[in-house]
Amino acid sequence: MLKTFGCTTFFHRSGRKFEPRARKCVFLGYPEGVMGYRLWDKSENGVKIIISRDVKFNESEMPSLKSEKQQETISGESPVEVERVSTPLPVSPSEVESDN
Prior knowledge:
The protein has one helix and five strands. It has one helix at about 70-75, and strands at about 10, 20-30, 35-40, 50, 55-60.
């Protein structure tokens, strides 16, 4: 069954006795050629992508849909800036007006 893209996930991690046993991530999709799930671990510094089969899904929580204010108060991080670059379309000579 397909899962909701961008929902909250928890993946099981093995560690020491007093460490948390699960880590909260965001579901990114399915990796090619591997049985498992691709997850984004936002708690790590930088970008950390995890591929795991042992995952619990909370499809009712969508961290990517929260407002920027909520994101900052929850994670303490500033939002990621995305710059859109538009490429001008080529113009055919018949569409160009001349000043003659």
